[in-house]
Amino acid sequence: MPEILDQARTQVLENGVGLDEAGVLAVLNLPDEHLPAALQLAHEVRMRWCGPEVEVEGIVSLKTGGCPEDCHFCSQSGLFTSPVRAVWLDIPSLVEAAKQTAKTGATEFCIVAAVRGPDDRLMRQLREGVAAIRAEVDIQVAASVGMLTQEQVDELVEMGVHRYNHNLETCRSYFPNVVTTHSWEERWETLRMVRESGMEVCCGGILGLGESVEQRAEFAAQLAELDPHEVPLNFLNPRPGTPLGDRSVVEGKDALRAIAAFRLAMPRTILRYAGGRELTLGDLGTRSGLLGGINAVIVGNYLTTLGRPATTDLELLQDLKMPVKALSATL
Amino acid sequence: MSSDTTGPAPLGMSTRVGEPAGTAASWCDRCGTPAGEEGDHTACRAARQLEPPRYCQHCRRRMKVQVLPVGWAAVCVEHGETRA
Question: Exposed, middle or buried, B52 (CB in 10 Å: 0-12/13-18/19+)?
Fold first, then answer.
């Protein structure tokens, strides 16, 4: 057994203290023959500190495309030659999307907009949409609308948004290679305000942007420092027309190593499968990740791409005897 | 079900609104280049399993596409809406 896994068994599994950056790097560098042991330990950590339940979420894009920022992975930037056009979702369709999501058993519904930060029009649309969903659908509402002012943070709290997503996307040292129109620190500032507001913090990123293994470890350590309620893990799905459109997808084993390592860095967080898992992991890998530290999934489609049918994931959870977290448990 | 599934990247359950049935696709709805024998769209067909269409198959216009948790809707200003 590699020394790092022995250390993690005591430190993380027994004492609930996550691995530091050096420890995460050691897990990320484990040879293939030790990957099953790392996943098994990460699964034990998840079961010990989070329990067997899996949190299910659906997401929808309220405002698609036309974003002024240049996140190099994103097909919604107006600065690239992506085929994605700008479109707004109307409120009745938003409510219907929330209803469809609730039918899957999901307890979370996240409303997302491709913006630098919300303007008055978007805040009005969000206010109307959140109110309509809360009136008609039994589901928790989360939001992801970019960088916020303190006033906007307060407004979201007042609307009843219980969790706010704002991904750091990658580690601080690599961020300028991925985004040039705003800084990692600006994102961190929004996250600080969200945390202080009492909303739950949802913050993760994308693996496979060209970061090194060392930078992957740096990212995990920085997320652990933030200590978010939830960490969505995306794997790059290279989008046509974007600067990262020609990159290869992350190797399945590297993705699984990262899942185990991120769980061992953050034993208590909700570690969620997000975009790209279909390409990177496929069906077998998806199962392995759920048995290797993952305890939440986005079901159904994503913002501009399609996912597996929700029923496929729900059947897998049933097969793994992992109960879907109930709404009552989240309130 | 629509009979309009002769394009380069058909999805079995899509439904077109406002388009004459049986109209052959001229353009790849993923990459917007000529469909049929003029180009190899094998990769586009594979990618379309996890993507909605982006270009109108009939006029190559970029469509307004809304992805929803279940399904998607794509609107061409000339040829109307397709849903799946």
Answer: buried
Average of per-residue pLDDT across A54-71: 98
Which chain B positions have a beta carbon within 8 Å of A61's beta carbon?
Answer: 66-67
Spatial distance between the Cα atoms of A17 and B81, rounded to a whole number of angstroms: 53
- CA B55 to chain A, closest CA, distance in angstroms equals 8
B29 within some domain: yes
Domain that includes residue B34, residue range: 15-83
Chain B contact probe: residue of A75, A80, A81, A84 with most B CBs at under 10 A: A84
Q: What is the pLDDT along chain B (84 residues), one digit of tens a residue?
A: 333 333 333 444 577 665 544 567 899 999 999 998 777 899 999 999 999 999 999 999 999 999 999 999 999 999 999 999
In a domain, B2, yes or no: no
Secondary-structure class of domain A18-330 per CATH: alpha beta
pLDDT tens, residue by residue, A294-322: 999 999 999 999 999 999 999 999 999 99
Using a CB–CB cutoff of 8 Å, tell me whether A278 touches chain B.
yes
| B76 found inside a domain | yes
pTM over cut 0.90: yes
- Closest CB to B62 among A85, A101, A310: A85
pLDDT of residue A53 exceeding 50, the answer is: yes
- Tell me the CA distances in angstroms from A55 to A97, A190, A227, A242, A281, one per residue in order: 18, 24, 18, 31, 20
Strands (E), chain B: 15-17, 64-67, 72-76, 80-83
The number of domains in chain B is 1
Please report, for chain A, the start and end positions of each structural domain, with discontinuous segments joined by +: 18-330
B9 in a domain, yes or no? no
